[in-house]
Design goal:
It is a single chain. With 343 residues, the protein is mostly helical. Helix content is 69%, strand content 5%. A two-stranded antiparallel ribbon has the order 1-2. Strand 1 and strand 2 (13-17) form a beta hairpin.
Length: 343
């Protein structure tokens, strides 16, 4: 970088060369790209995909790959708003209970003679009400979200179990089966298309709107965000309601896919949903994360679990894998941060 300097005694100007170069944008470095969590996730997904393809002859069959998306599409729909909630320094443990109660509400509505198309709105309304209860308890009464939602998951699941007893609701309309089990052009599962549409919508809101920037601001420093004029409690309440509504949508698709409402529907899903979000690079401390990372985590987990199921490995081992992944993704960033501080 060349600079000009004027001698105050002689009045002459001379050119000098500075040792520093100021760039408008930082240069793109391979180390920086490879160091991103999303890049590591993409590599992990490729490794898992290729490993399954080599070890399991039926894995690469196009119809098997399409069917494999049913294993994670409903969970991923809940993971999208959960990511926004965790970025905002909140969490919702009650999503599986919300899903169960929404499915029961659809069963009751079907028995009462509601039109088939209205069952979706019943599920969405039930989920939204559950999310509203969580949000009000957190924002209006100042209760910790993790304590509130641990309580409400038992409440929602308990209500669903009391209504069902030892029975199950069946005989749902064909419309629900078409969306829960159906395909577009006999190739692409409808559930997966719905997931991709919502993923694009959530990514746009989080990364390209003022609403998304405010979510990051709240997650980084809620007090500073409040003093800057952001209505923190309103944003948190809306996110709880949105998470409940998406759990209701997942209930509609899952109930249509399995064709019934059972007492154990979506049991343990909250662990898998939170694992998808944390594995996707969303900081449990809030203020950081991307929808792209969450979707990569969804695809990676879906590939691993579907490969295990094709290999006839019992489901309990899948639970162990998910639990280990959750522990590693929470602990690893903290350990790496500790090493950098020690240096």
């Amino acid at each position: 970088m060349t600079m000009t300097a004027t001698n105050p005694t002689t009045g002459r100007t001379s050119a000098t060369t500075s040792r520093y170069t100021i760039l408008d944008r930082p240069r793109l470095q391979v180390r920086t790209v490879l160091g991103k969590w999303e890049t590591l996730l993409a590599l992990l997904f490729v490794v898992a995909f290729l490993t399954n393809g080599l070890l399991l002859p039926t894995f690469l069959d196009p119809y098997n790959l399409a069917d494999g998306t049913f294993n994670f599409s409903e969970k991923a729909l809940i993971a999208l708003p959960m990511a926004l909630l965790i970025i905002c320094r909140e969490i919702d443990i009650s999503v599986a209970g919300t899903l169960a109660l929404s499915s029961v509400a659809m069963g009751l509505a079907k028995g009462a003679g509601f039109p088939p198309a209205s069952l979706l709105f019943v599920a969405l309304a039930t989920g939204t009400l559950c999310g509203t209860l969580n949000g009000v308890l957190v924002t209006r009464f100042g209760l910790p979200a993790i304590v509130v939602t641990i309580g409400t998951v038992s409440l929602f699941r308990g209500l669903a179990s009391v209504v069902l007893g030892d029975k199950a609701f069946t005989g749902y309309p064909q419309l629900m089966s078409d969306w829960g089990q159906g395909y577009f052009f006999d190739v692409i599962p409808r559930e997966f298309v719905v997931l991709l549409v919502f993923a694009a919508l959530f990514a746009f809101v989080l990364h390209a709107t003022r609403w998304g920037r405010r979510i990051y601001a709240i997650g980084n420093n809620p007090v500073a965000a409040r003093f800057s004029g952001i209505e923190v409690d309103r944003y948190r309440l809306v996110l709880f309601m949105l998470t409940g509504a998406m759990a209701g949508l997942a209930a509609f698709l899952l109930t249509g896919r399995i064709g019934s409402t059972r007492p154990n529907i979506a049991m343990g899903w909250e662990l898998e949903v939170i694992t998808m979000v944390i594995l996707g690079g969303v900081s449990i401390a809030g203020g950081a994360g991307t929808i792209g990372g969450v979707m990569l985590a969804v695809l990676t987990l879906g590939t691993v679990t579907y490969g295990l199921s094709l290999a006839n490995i019992p489901g309990i081992y899948m639970t162990i894998v998910i639990g280990l992944l959750l522990l590693v993704t929470i602990a690893l960033p903290r350990l790496l941060r500790g090493k950098k501080v020690a240096k």
